[in-house]
Amino acid sequence: MSDDLLDRLAAEATPVPRARLPMLLGLAVAIGSAVAMLVMIAWLGLRPDLMEATGTMIFWWKFTYTAIFSAIALWATIRLARPGGSMRRPMVGLFALIAFAGVLGIAQLVIMPPGMSYELVMGGTALLCPFYIVGLAVPVYAATALMMRRLAPTNLAAAGFAAGLLAGSAAAWVYAFHCGENGMPFLAIWYTTGILIAAGIGAILGRWALRW
Amino acid sequence: MNPTADNEARLKPLMLAALAGDQRAYRALLAELRTHLVRYYARRLTNPAAADDLVQETLMAIHTRRLTYDVTQPFTAWLHAIARYKLIDHFRRSKLRQTLPLEDDAAIFAADDAGDATARMDVDTVLATLPDRPAALIRQVKLEGSSIAEAAGRAGMTETAAKVAIHRGLKALAARFTGGAR
Asked: Residue ranges of the alpha helices (H) in chain B?
């Protein structure tokens, strides 16, 4: 092999800021989420009572739960976009977050009269919610995967899982602007289910979608 | 003494300089990496042309994906992960079902045999503090990978007795080396 290659590569040694990788992945998620938001508005529509909803606790808990979930999933994705990266620490954070949402859900079931339990858990859209979240995750996953192919994941299934978690949680955040459900248990069960389905699909797709 | 640490100490500063835009440091780094990669792939592939392609491909990957290096982590670990990924990817593409060196975690650089030897000597010293029979059982089952049945047969005892002896021996060692905490 000639030295030409080395000379050519060395000539391209432009400075690489340390934050370049997190910024690129963050940008990909932002673009994917913007597309998901447009799709949501065109396909499902914003909830008609959005203005009044912003005065309720549950709206902001949905907003916060999915936002924190996305942040941790982005952390996991950044780690797995590097060679040999592991997602053990982010996963601990996600387990804690999901457990906290579960505790809030149970607390609400205990506090509210038993007659309301079914409504709080199932709402009116229990089975549709995970389905919509997975659907809205598609553009986010696509944007994230396209970016990750330019990075260097070495465990493709795990990287796909992290990208799926990220896509699912960002999609859930978007979906919260449509969803009119008011139960904490509903959020803990069905939002989380949708995100985890997206993550599972992401892990399966990762093996070929993330190859480089 | 320790080639891996040596390489890390020499290569990481070059990489940091390269990431800061120093072309001369980067050129020196690439030249060294090429030497190491040539050896790494030559040792693992029978086809010299394929090994050559992989060296080139890996150098390109190192270049285009250098933003994935986390400067708080060892450089040689990052390098090895990329070289290994390219190797496995090559096997996958060429659909060779030959023995894939998956457990081969030897670094690109000469393995740190000194460390292994020290660890072995430590184990010997520790086991010597136990009576002969439990020590032999622990060595065979835990270090050499024999089954409990085999080791028990060799020691002329029942499997249950062997299991108990191993358990007691390990417990005694644990007690001794945690200051008798458990």
From this structure: 3-19, 23-44, 48-64, 75-93, 113-127, 132-138, 148-155, 159-177
Quote the CA–CA distance of B176 and B182 in Å, as a whole number. Answer: 9
Q: Verify whether the Cβ–Cβ distance B78 to A7 is below 8 Å.
A: no
Q: Is B20 helix (H, G, I), strand (E, B) or coil?
A: coil
Cα–Cα distance, B54 to B48 (Å, whole number): 10
Contact B27 A212 (CB under 8 A): no
Q: How far apart are CA A154 and CA B85, in angstroms?
A: 6
Q: Give the model's pLDDT for residue B182.
A: 41
Other Cβ atoms within 10 Å of B9 Cβ, number: 12
CB contact A15 to B (< 8 Å): yes
User: How do the domains of chain B map onto residue ranges?
Assistant: 3-93, 113-177
Distance of residue A11 Cα from the nearest chain B Cα, in angstroms: 6
What fold characterizes domain B113-177?
Arc Repressor Mutant, subunit A (1.10.10)
What letter does residue A125 receive in the DSSP assignment?
A: T
| Contact assessment for residue A29 and residue A144, using Cβ atoms and an 8 Å cutoff | yes
Q: Closest Cα to residue B140, out of B129, B130, B128, B155?
A: B155
Give contacts of B19 with chain A, Cβ < 8 Å. Answer: 15-16
Using CA atoms, how far apart are residues B47 and A16, in angstroms rounded to an integer? 35
How would CATH label the architecture of B3-93?
Orthogonal Bundle (1.10)
A211 in Cβ contact with B89 (< 8 Å): yes
CB pairs under 8 A between A and B: 74
State pLDDT tens for residues A77-124: 999 999 999 999 999 999 999 999 999 999 999 999 999 999 999 999
Question: Which among B88, B69, B86, B67 has a CA at the least distance from the CA of B78?
Answer: B69
The SS3 call for residue B110 is: coil
Question: Taking a C-beta distance cutoff of 8 angstroms, is the pair A85, A153 a contact?
Answer: yes
Closest of B65, B79, B93 to residue A208, by C-alpha: B93
Q: Which residues of B touch A1 (CB under 8 A)?
A: 34, 52, 55-56
- Quick: pLDDT tens for A55-83: 999 999 999 999 999 999 999 999 999 99
Q: How far apart are CA A157 and CA A203, in angstroms?
A: 5
Q: Which residues contact A43 (CB under 8 A, 6 or more apart)?
A: none
